[in-house]
Amino acid sequence: MFTPDEALPLVARAYPHHGPVRAGWRVLRSASLWAERGDVFRQTLYLYTVIAAGALVIVVSMWQVAIAPPGAQWFILAALTMLSGAATLRMPNVPVSFSISDSFTITAALLFGPAAGALTVVIDSLVMSFRLKQRDNPLQRLCFNAVAPALAMWTAAHVFFLLAGVGSLIESSQPLSSLIGPLATFAALYFVLNTGLVAGAVALE
User: Fold this and answer.
1) 85-115 per-position pLDDT tens digit
2) With contact defined as beta carbons under 8 Å apart, do 128 and 137 qualify?
3) pTM
4) In what helix (H) or strand (E) does residue 99 lie, and over which residues does it extend?
5) Closest Cα to residue 194, out of 136, 138, 152?
6) Which residues are within 8 A (CB) of 40 and not within 5 positions of it... i.e. 6 or more apart?
7) Beta carbons within 8 Å of 183's beta carbon, 6+ residues apart
């Protein structure tokens, strides 16, 4: 049987073992909190960088279209884009969907230039974003979904016209056979940029 005097040293010797354990848990918890804050910071930085770049593209495109209107044909394509924007084709087992209106947005970019193409994509994106708004998506995500495709289209269209060496196709008489390479590059780059921007946002969530 232990007396109180004999028992005290045993209790006292037990505390040093608890101290490091508690300190270790505090360190792990702090590291976990810092990691979560770092993830949130990277996600926010990525989203706002894409939103800022896309917004700049939209403003520049609006200015270019205002000083050099593309013509009535573009407004027809824009109307068709709005009407078909809600119809999408989903890929099985892959978080990627294609809008039927993509055909109109691509046509607008090739016929009337990067600015008209980017604005047409914005129209398509806004139609889809308003539909997604019913799913309680945050405003930040809606803005990203609206501007990221425009940024991808604007970039891909500029690369196309740089490779093709022509202006808007509606004013060009260059044979289609000479545009096969630039067209393939345009389609591939637009797909990679569009899906890549979205995939980057999803990966950071």
Assistant:
1) 655 666 566 555 556 778 889 999 999 999 9
2) no
3) 0.71
4) strand 97-99
5) 152
6) none
7) 110, 160
Question: How far is Cα 102 from Cα 122, in angstroms, rounded to an integer?
Answer: 11
Backbone conformation region of residue 98, classed left if phi is above 0, alpha if psi is from -120 to 50, else beta: beta
- Distance CA(88)–CA(102), nearest Å, equals 10
Quick check: 118 and 109 in contact, CB under 8 A?
yes
Q: Are 45 and 204 in contact (CB under 8 A)?
A: no
Q: Are 161 and 114 in contact (CB under 8 A)?
A: yes
Q: What is the pLDDT of residues 129-165, one digit of tens each?
A: 776 655 555 777 788 888 999 999 999 999 999 998 8
Task: Give the 3-state secondary structure of residue 91.
Answer: coil
